[in-house]
Amino acid sequence: EVQLVESGGGLVQPGGSLRLSCVASGFTYRIYWMSWVRQASGKGLEWVANLKGDGSQKYYVDSVRGRFSISRDNTNNLLFLDMNNLRVEDTAVYYCVRDDWGPSKTWGQGTLVTVSS
Amino acid sequence: DVLMTQSPLSLSVTLGQPASISCKSSQSLVHSNGNTYLHWIQQRPGQSPRRLIYRVSNRDSGVPDRFSGSGSGTDFTLEISRVEAEDVGVYYCLQGSHWPPWTFGQGTRVEIK
Known about the structure:
The complex is a heterodimer.
Chain A: E1 3-7, E2 10-12, E3 18-25, E4 33-39, E5 45-51, E6 58-60, E7 68-73, E8 78-83, E9 92-99, E10 111-115
Parallel strand pairs in A: 2-10
Antiparallel strand pairs in A: 1-3, 3-8, 4-5, 4-9, 5-6, 7-8, 9-10
Chain B: E1 4-7, E2 10-13, E3 19-25, E4 38-43, E5 50-54, E6 58-59, E7 67-72, E8 75-80, E9 89-95, E10 103-104, E11 108-112
Parallel strand pairs in B: 2-11
Antiparallel strand pairs in B: 1-3, 3-8, 4-5, 4-9, 5-6, 7-8, 9-10, 9-11
């Protein structure tokens, strides 16, 4: 059974940084693309970034490119999102999902990032 | 980017009655490999999203058979044959055929009348 557990969210001031983590289990992690998807409170879902299984290709939504960096540790089944120069509009719950040309069936509980002064 | 447009954005349904949500894409979602990566996501109040339907019409395990997906090209539909109380929430379509980025519809809020 696919399980995804996100962590690392918190309150940060505008311009600050944060690192999100996701631990995956229940599937052969290293062969799958992985994505981050976010959801601002009361709003819809927005894809943020994804990363190929071997780490060789990565893509970002325009609004975070140059500020966020996605990476992974295939030894420990971990996915990361390093977020720099955070803006108020980055405030959201962040989910990691297995990338199956779209999200897999199971999502984690998400981790809340709040950017506020 | 592919624009996904859902309608209606809100739906009030009597228990046991059917419901239908439309999703239209700004370009065909048929990938060059022949597959159509159009999926439906359910988000119940206070819960994480979960995928209901993948590749247009395939129900995920554990999803009741009252949920069905159909469509092709640019026009897709999610139908609930008989709405139950547990179906309350927001439903999103999303496309993974032309990425980056995946793009989501605005969401359709389903409530019980």
